[in-house]
Records
---
Amino acid sequence: MPSDADQNVKQAVPFFMVTDIEASLRFYIDGLGFSIEQEWRPEQSEGRIRWCWLALGGAALMLQEYWKDGRPGGAPEGVLGQGVSVCFMCSDAIGIYKDLVRRGIDARRPFVGNGLWVTSATDPDGYRLDFESPTDAPEETEYSGED
C-alpha cells in the first residue's frame, strides 16, 4: 500500500561540499555540460557563488563551497569524494564518453558491467560520476573506440 512518502518524495539530489567552487563549476559546466538552475551569492562572499543547483537532462546535483572565517576554507583533511559514486542513468553512455573526451575530461573508457555500458569521470574533489546505459553486450566488454 502506498504511503504518503511514496507520493511526496520526488527526487534525490546529491549535495557535494567542494573546496574550490570555481574549479568545480568549470568541471561540471564546461566539462560535463551541466547548467546552473539556482545559485546563492551572499554579500559577504563578494559576489562569489557559494551554493548552486546544477542540472543535466533530468538529473541534478548541488555544490556548496566550504567557507570559514569569511573566506573559502575549512574542508576536512583527505579526499572529499573518497568512496562516493553517483550513477547517472543515460540512453547512451558511449555518447556521453565521446562528449566528455571532446570537452577535455579524463573519462574512463566504457566497459560493460551489470548489463550496462559504464563510463566515469572524477570531479576536482574526488567525487566519482558514473554514466550508465543498458546493453546486451557481454559482461566486461570494453569499448574499442570504433563505431
---
Amino acid sequence: MIIFPAIDIRGGRCVRLTEGRFDQETVFADNPAEMAEKWTKAGAEYLHVVDLDGALAGASRNLEAIKNILTVAKMPIQVGGGIRTLDNVEQLLSLGVARVILGSVAVKNPVLVQEACARFPGQVVVGIDAKNGEVAVEGWGVSGGMQAVELAKRMAQAGVEHIVFTDIARDGKLSGVNVEATAHIAMSSGIKIIASGGVSSLGDITALKKYEDLGIEGCIIGKAIYTGAIDLADALNIAREK
C-alpha cells in the first residue's frame, strides 16, 4: 500500500485546513518544497499535492511552488486543485507531474474526464470528496447532488483507474479514517481507491491495509505527520508489510 504525504499549498505556503474550511488554516511551512524534501528524506515514494488557491479559482494558481517541489522530490507526485480543462491537465503533466486529480469537473463535465483518460491513460485521478456519502464540489463548498458511490461507478465507465476518496467531515480533525466507506467505494466501483481524511494513527493504516486486495491502493496522510501524531517512517513500514 502506498502512503502519500500531503502538501497543501495556499498563497505559496504549505498549510493544513480543517474540514476544508479556509478560515481554519494552519501554516506549517513558508516553502512547500522544504516539506517535499523532508518527506523525501523520510522515505516517501509518492507525494500528494493540492493547490488550494486553484480549487477556489478553478485553475492552477501555485505552479511555481509545484515546480519547486518537482525539483527536490525524488519521487512521483500527483496534483489536484482547480484542474478543469484538458489544457491545464497537459500543462501540469508537461511539468513532470505524474498524475493529475480532477475533482469538481468529474461532476460537472464527465465528458472531459473521459477525454482526459483517453488522452493521458493512467495519469488521471478523480477526487471524490463527500460528507455523509454526498459529493461536495468547488472547494467543498457546494453539494454535487450525487452519492459518492454513484459517481465512482460513473468514473469507472469513463476510464478512470484511480480515485482519491475524502471524507471531508473527518479531514484535518485526526478523528480516524472512514475505512468502511472507502472500502465500499472500492468494491462497488472496481477502481483503485486512495483513502483520505481523518487519518490519525498507525491503526488507521493497518485497518485500511486489510482491504488492499479489494482495491484500497493507498492512504493520504496530512495533519497527522505535520503534528507528529504519526511518524512517517512507521507508517511506511506498515504499508510495505507483506
---
Amino acid sequence: MGADGGRTSIRVAVACALIAVLAGVASIWAANDAAWPDASTLVKVAFSDPIAPLAASIDPQFDLGGGQEHYDGLYYYAIALDPLAIGQAHELIDMAGFRYGRPMHGWLAALLSLGNRAAVPEALLVLSLLGLGLGAFGASRICVMFGRTPWGGLVIAMSPGLLFATTVSTTETMGAALAIWLLLAWLRGWSAWAIAALGIVLCLYREQLVLVIIGILLYEVIEMIRRRSVRGAGAVRRVAALLVGPAALGGWLLYVHARFDAWPKPDDAGSLSVPPLGWIESFHVAYGSQNAGTFVDHQIGSTAPPYLIALAVLLLAALWAARRLRSPLDTIAIVQVAVMTALGWRTLAFPHEMYRIPSLAILSALAVLLLPAPSRPPDRVPQ
C-alpha cells in the first residue's frame, strides 16, 4: 500500500473510531428517554443494594435506581472503590469472590478517577466509550492487513452487545478492544514486552478473554507442526510473552482465594451448562416466558428463539469456515464457539445477556467469514 493509501486507511480508521463512540453516546441517550443521564445512572445501583448507602455517602447526587435496575456495573464500581478487597465495598456486593476475579475494569476506573471516588462513574463511562473507539480503530487496521476495506472497523458500532454494555458500564467494550489490539500486536510482530503488557491487562479484564490467547497459541502450535520446525528466537519470545497474561491471572486468583476462601466462579444456576443442554433449556425458558401472562414476558419469550437460532447459524458457519486454520482468527473463533456451546439459559434466554455476552464470539465469527486468508504468514506482515 502506498503512502497515500496508508494515510487514507488511517483516516478511515479514525472515522470508524469516532462513529463507534458516537454510536455509544447515542445508545446512552436513547436508553435514557432521549436525555443525557448522570454517569452514576449507568452504574445501575438499586436503592435496595447494600452498596447504595456507601454510594450516596460518597456522592449525595448518585442516581439510585429502582429494585429492577440492579446490574453488573455496580460490581466494577465496588472494585474501583476497594481495589484489593481490603476496604468496605467488597463486603457490600454479592458473590464478591467471583466479582473480584475480573478486577481490571474497576482498577482502571480507580486510576482514571485520580483518587476522587465521586468520579468513578464518569471513569467507567470513559472506559466504555474509549473501548468502542479503540476497538473500531483496531478492527479497521486488521481489515486492511487482510486486504479488506478499512471501513470494516464499523462492525464495532454495529454490535448491539457492545452498545448495550456502554449503557450499563460493563466490561465488554474495552474487553473487545483489548482482544482486537492483542491480535493486531501479534499480527504486526510487536515486541514481546508489548504483547505481555496487553496480555496481562486482557486476562485481568475478564477471565474468558484468556481464550484469545489460547486461540493464538493453538494456531502457533499447529503452524509448528505443519512446518516441522520451531520459529526463530524472536517468535519464541513472543509466544512466551503470551503466557504472562494467564500467569498474572493465576497469581491474582490465588490472592482472591486467600481473601475470600473460594475460587472465583458463578453461583447462579443456569450460567453454564453441559453443551448443548443450555441452549435447549433456553428455548424452554423462552416458551415459558411467552405464557407468563405479561406483555413484556411474551415479547422476550417470542423473540429469543429466532435470535438464538440465527446466532447458532452464524457460529456454526464460522466454525466450518475456520476449519482450514488459515490464521489466528480461525483458532480464536473455534475456541469462542466452543465456549458458546456451554452457556446456560440464564445467559442465553434474556436480552440483557444474550446480546452482551456473545459479542466477542460474534465479532470473531464475522471476521472468519468476511476476511480472506492472509497472503503471507501473519507474524511476518510488515509494520
---
Amino acid sequence: MVDTQHRIGRSIALGTVAAAALLAAASGGTATAGGSQLRIGLVLEQPLVSRSGDPFQYGAYHGLVRAARDLHVRAKVVAPNPSSSGDPYISAMSYLARQPYDLVIALGTLETDAVSHAARRFPHVRFALLDGTRRAVKHAPANVEGTVFHTEQPAYLAGFLAARMVDRGPRPHVVGSVAGVPIGTVRAYVSGFRAGARAADPKIKLLNAYTYDFVSQTKCRHAALNQIAQGSRVVFDVAGACGVGALEVAKRRGVYGIGVDIDQSYLGRYILTSVVKNLGSAVYDLASRLVDARWRTGGDLSFDLRNRGVGLGTISPDVPRALRRQLRTLAAEIVQGKIVVPTTLSPRP
C-alpha cells in the first residue's frame, strides 16, 4: 500500500488527496527485488495533478498509476513545497532516495539540476529524467537515464492539418502557436508545426509567441487573442497549463485549437487534434524495465512515431476523410525516413 500522507517533512507535499488515493488503490501485488516490493517515485513540478489544469503532469502521473496497477510496484507521487528553503526538487528526490525507492523519476527541465545533485548523492539509486536527455544533467551521472520525445514528428502532421483546414476558408490564411519557455523541447514542437504548415501551403502566414511561462493562463490568453486579431484561425497550444488559456480563447472566438501533451479532444470538436507526448508510456516503460531486470542507465530512451511514444490525438469530426488519409501517408513517410522533420526553427519568419 502506498503511503498517502499529505505532508512529508518540511519540504514535500503529495500532489492531491485524489491522486494519492488513486495510487493507493492501484498499487499492490508482488513485483519484488531481493524479496521486497519494488518502489517507484515520481517527483512532480507542481502539487496539482489535473487533466484540464496541467496536461503535461497528468500524462506522467497516469503512467505511474498504470504501472502500479499492472506491474504491482509500490508507487508514490511527491511535489515540492514552494515555501521551503533551498531547492525543493532536491528535497523531494532525496526523500525518495533515502527510503530507499528503487527508481526516482523526475519530470521535465525544471528538475534537471536536482537530478544531478540527487543522483550523485545517492549513486546506488536509479534516476530517470522525463523529457530530458542524460547529457542535459550536469556531470551526467551514470545512474541516470534520459528520455527523448520526438514531438516534432506529430507536430509536423498537426501543422499540415492546420494549414489545410485554414486554406478551405477565406483569406488571410494564418495559423499560430502559443508556446511557453523557448527551451529545446518546446522549440521542437514549434519547429515541426511550422514545417508541416509550410509543406501544406508554402504561402501561409505563421505566427508564434513565447509567453515565458508554463503556468499563467492569462499570459496565454493574451497571446492567443493577439494572434486571432492578426487573422489566425488555428491556435496551437505548446505551453502546458498556461496553454489551457489559449485553447479557451480559441473556443470563445470560434477558431480551431490544437492540444498538447495529452489528447485534449474532450474540450470539444473545435480541437482539430492534439500533439501527444506519451509521458505515461515512458513511465510505464521505465517501470517495466525495472520489474523485468532490463534496466540500463547511462543513456537515453527514444520515443517517436515508430514506437508510438508520440502521435496525434483524436481528430475532429470537422476534418475530411481525404485529409485524414493524407495525414496517415505523411506519418508513414516520417517513420520511413522519407520526411525528416526539423527540430530547430528555420530563419524564415
